[in-house]
Amino acid sequence: MAVFLIRRILSAVPLLFGISVLVFILMAVAPGDFLDVARSQEDIPAEYIERMEEEFALGEPWHTRYFIWLGNVVRGNLGESWIYRVPVTELLAQRVPATLVLSALSILFALCIAIPMGVLAAIYKDSVFDRISSLFAYAALSIPEFFLALLAVMFAAQTGLFPIGGLSSVEHEFMSFWGRMADYAHHLVLPTIVLGMGSVASYMRIMRANFLDYIRSDFVTTARAKGVPEGRVMFVHVLRNAINPLVSASGFILATLLSGSILVENVMNYPGLGQLIFEALMRQDEFVVVAAVMMGCIMLMLGNLIADLLLAWSDPRIRLEKN
Amino acid sequence: MFQHNSGTALPSQRTEIPFLLQVILVLLLALAGTGCKGEIPGVERPEYSLPLDVDISSNEPGRYGGIFVTAESQQPRTFNPLVAEDAYSSEAIGRFLNGLTFYHPLKEEVVPELARSWEISEDQKSITMHLRRGVRWSDGEPFTASDVMFTFKALFDERYPNRYQGQYTIAGEPIGYEKIDQYTVRFSTARPYSPFLYVIGFIGILPRHVLYDAYEQGELLQKWSIRTAMHQPGELVGTGPFSIRSFRPGQRILYEPNPHYWRADSKGRRLPYVDYLITRYVQDRNTETVLFVSGQIDVSAITPGDVVGVNRNSELHDYTVHHRGPATGIRFIWFNQKPGTNEQGRPYVEPHKLEWFTNKKFRQAVLYGFNREGLISSVYFGRAELLHSIISPANQRWYNPDVRKYPYDPDRARELLASQGFVYGADGNLLDQYGNAVVVDVYASEGDDITPQILSTFRENMRDLGIRVRVRYLDFGTLVARISRHFEYEAAMMGFTGGADPSGGRAIYLSSGRLHLWNPGQEEPHTEWESRVDQLVYASEETFDPDERVEYVHRMQEIFSEELPLLFLLTPHTYVGLKNKWRNVRIPSMGSVIWNIDELYLEPEH
């Protein structure tokens, strides 16, 4: 187990290097730079812009900046945001919790809806319920998240049932502890649904397909022949086996949720990592972009690692050491 | 094939229970969220005595209470004035820091802020400022000339590059500053510089007692970042109307009244009246409009296209959409007139094209041939007007209404072109005197939905004149790089936001300016009219006589509208929605609507 973990973590290092080089090249190839906004403002003096160019090494080729950055990283310093003049780590730390909460809730939401729906669709295969749920799944898969987010904002504005974006209301800091928790929950409902909707559909399809596979397998026939009650067969034997692929899918879903959250967070005004990355990308705040991309990769790798561990735990046939 | 029997129905319901429970739990919590919309308690106002030189508001006295909520599309990047370079940060800083002077948007002149009065010396090169006596910082420490000295020392410190260093360098020399006594400071400039009183108000005076240690240690630029506002808002000590109570990145900032603010009303009550000022950050401008229409914020800019829709809810949430007149910015198309070649020896502009672009009659013909009036009625539904000058009509003090104008007149355009040797080929295309077809590439950035509409009209109108226009859209950064560094373009479209005093436009007007777009950074004025403009700009900055200054700026505008280096387009009207419950509202033609937020109060029935 420990060997497996160490190997997985070590193999991530070259990957992160590669990604950081790629990000620096892409940022250098992309037109313009961080100071464009300052350059287009009529009342910012030219001397100031020159000083800033020098300070940020913007006149230098990308590899010079890359090695400056790398030197800092080795010393445990991810650099400073040019926009905010605050260490990048601090900036990310402000935003990561909100995004993690949203992602975790959407996965939870997706699982809670997708598993029962997938199971029912498999058991009542070809029934009206199956057809309708398939229709829903394909529709949900084909609607882009940002569009759903726009619909959700419109819904909130029209009905007034939910707040229009944000994570907490204006009165937040004058509330009691439980009031604050309820305030968060109230704000999280719509973003969770919007972000989770796409995963509901894909989870449901996976669940249904697996469930059908296992329903037809030999051990089910055996169990039935032994006279095990039908409910026990379905929900103990079949479900237990059919759920494994979902666990490994969750690792990937975490990554897609993160990329989806960039759009959703911007439309729904949710103060998470997505907003920060979007702004940093638009302004070409290099160190923040690099750190944010690396952060996304680390989360993807962690997601996969956790999924693998969970799989090993839930499926006794899998032994990590031998892989 | 498996055939299900009725036995499966029962357990399937059993699995649904946790899921249902989840839904119910979430809904319950969510409903609880709507149920306990906490009331914000009123703010406590400690009774500190008013400063000796208190400023008494001339507006009607109001009453305490109320929460004013605004929205911004971007959050402040810093609370340190030496680091700030964007309007959003400057606005937040302006809530808790004051400058020495303030540009009053209604009077359109500089009024005292932390300086209570000033005298200009005989030779007009030194200005003595008398500071308000008895003013205290929000933490209770006294404000004195040492704070002013500290601010300027920090600003000119080599370790701390900032935008003000350039702004406060006049005729190549940094302005001088000295302390005369505890409440008197004297500034000196190398040459008489009349915008001085205006520009000196830009920098918020910093509290020496809070920042001196950081200054000494070379860490001044790291102070007062968003992290300070999040964790120790109490460290952001200022003299302004508000102090920062809390800041949540990406969400909102909450201000509370500064108990030591130096303004009061005629009944001797300290301003501001509001209990809290809240600015919410919304990523999207449309969200801001939605928030306003649903009554959740008190003020919002409204685009011309949204006016009708927003007005529909005005009774429900008791607000009014006010017409503010033309926007302060200017928008234009221009031709690249930069002579010379790049590093590879390729000319920036092909020589025969450069000949057209430097010909003023050609530029005038193009503007005569552009149906801007049609654009206003079709795209803006009349909610815009033609722009005739390099200064927007919103800036009433400096705008010259009597410059040369170019109404749509295609016949006049053709005449002008013919007079310059342009002829029409067999296919109807315009040819210059050497037989080159007149083809122009226009670059623009797809900033908003209006730009493509303006440019497609331009292209159609130019086709009528026989000029082929190709429009290329670029990313904003690429566009800026092209026009300010590589100079490889033929024509482009852009805009400037515009400020109150024309000295803010130096970089555009002066031939040596960085944003003298058509031919920037000239060592010597390239043309006779550019040198006339340079002289007018310098002259307007040297005279302290306000009327004389206006006269120079008017003449400068006449030259720009005659020579037309920038083809001025149009200026949309601006609108602002504001809830009717606020009193003492004075909406200026430019700048922030709630510039006098300290004087706003709730009408009694609320």
Could you tell me how far the N terminus lies from the C terminus of chain A, measured between alpha carbons in angstroms? Answer: 11 Å
Helical segment tally of chain B?
18
Could you tell me the mean pLDDT of chain B?
89
- The low-confidence parts of chain A are none
The helix tally of chain A amounts to 13
Mean pLDDT of chain A: 84
Order of helices and strands of chain A: HHHHHHHHHHHHH
What is the quaternary state of this protein? heterodimer
**How would you sum up the global shape of chain B?**
globular
- Beta percentage of chain B is 15-25%
- Helix coverage percent of chain B: 25-40%
The description of the largest β-sheet of chain B is:
5 strands, mixed
Low-pLDDT segments, ≥5 res of chain B = 1-17
Q: Please give the radius of gyration of chain B in angstroms.
A: 29 Å
> What would you call the structural class of chain A?
mainly alpha
Widest β-sheet, arrangement of strands of chain B: 22-21-23-17-24
Query: In whole angstroms, how far apart are the ends of chain B?
Result: 71 Å
Number of strands of chain B: 27
Largest inter-chain contact set: A-B, 81 and 85 residues
